[in-house]
């Protein structure tokens, strides 16, 4: 494996050989206010567009905010603890997914598929030198009303997108958390033959 940044080497050790992109992608909170150009920004959503989905229904949708007025609308429904650090992010995106199939039946995989699309987006952001941080801490009903989202769509997360800032730019209470998170060992996640049956 190619050499990794020191902060990744310190906090993330894979149990098996993988592409470094899976280790270098994490969720910082410190953003600069540098704008993200259209060609770079849209490449993230282009990557998400190619995520797999059940029946190729591609149920995910994104609403983006990249000007002061739109970002202020997003800030109105993000919880204060997240808004403290995400207000500097130049782009915010709401991830949602359509709950129904073309014939009006429930799409039982829409949330699974939307999560996959977010994963593709996050990896491409890392490839482009950007950081992303997905937040579940927002008022979904207020977001639905503010952004006029129809009831047949579920709202999942708000993603902050931009360029990484200095740790010192954050409130000190966030400093200790501004490091790549580790993961539980693979043997705790992987069963063989039946649930709970470890390898």
UniProtKB/TrEMBL annotation:
InterPro entries: Nitroreductase, Nitroreductase-like. Keywords: Oxidoreductase. SUPFAM superfamilies: FMN-dependent nitroreductase-like. Residues 24-73, 81-163 form the Nitroreductase domain. The keyword Oxidoreductase applies. The keyword Oxidoreductase applies. Belongs to the nitroreductase family. This is Nitroreductase family protein. It comes from Paenibacillus hexagrammi.
């Amino acid at each position: 494996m190619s050499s990794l940044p020191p902060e990744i080497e310190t906090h993330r050790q894979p149990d098996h050989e993988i592409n470094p992109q899976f280790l270098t992608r994490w969720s910082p909170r410190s953003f600069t206010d540098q704008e993200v150009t259209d060609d770079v920004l849209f490449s993230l959503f282009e990557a998400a567009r190619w995520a797999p989905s059940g029946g190729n229904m591609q149920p995910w949708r994104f609403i983006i905010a990249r000007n002061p007025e739109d970002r202020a609308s997003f800030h109105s429904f993000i919880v204060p603890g997240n808004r403290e650090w995400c207000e500097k992010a130049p782009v915010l995106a709401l991830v949602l997914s359509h709950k129904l199939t073309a014939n009006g039946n429930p799409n039982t995989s829409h949330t699974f598929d939307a999560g996959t699309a977010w994963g593709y987006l996050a990896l491409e952001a890392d490839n482009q030198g950007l950081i992303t941080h997905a937040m579940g801490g927002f008022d979904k009903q207020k977001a639905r009303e503010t952004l006029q989202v129809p009831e047949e769509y579920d709202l999942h997360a708000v993603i902050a997108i931009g360029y990484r800032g200095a740790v010192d730019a954050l409130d000190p209470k966030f400093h200790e958390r501004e490091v790549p998170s580790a993961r539980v060992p693979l043997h705790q996640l992987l069963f063989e033959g039946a649930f709970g049956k470890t390898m």
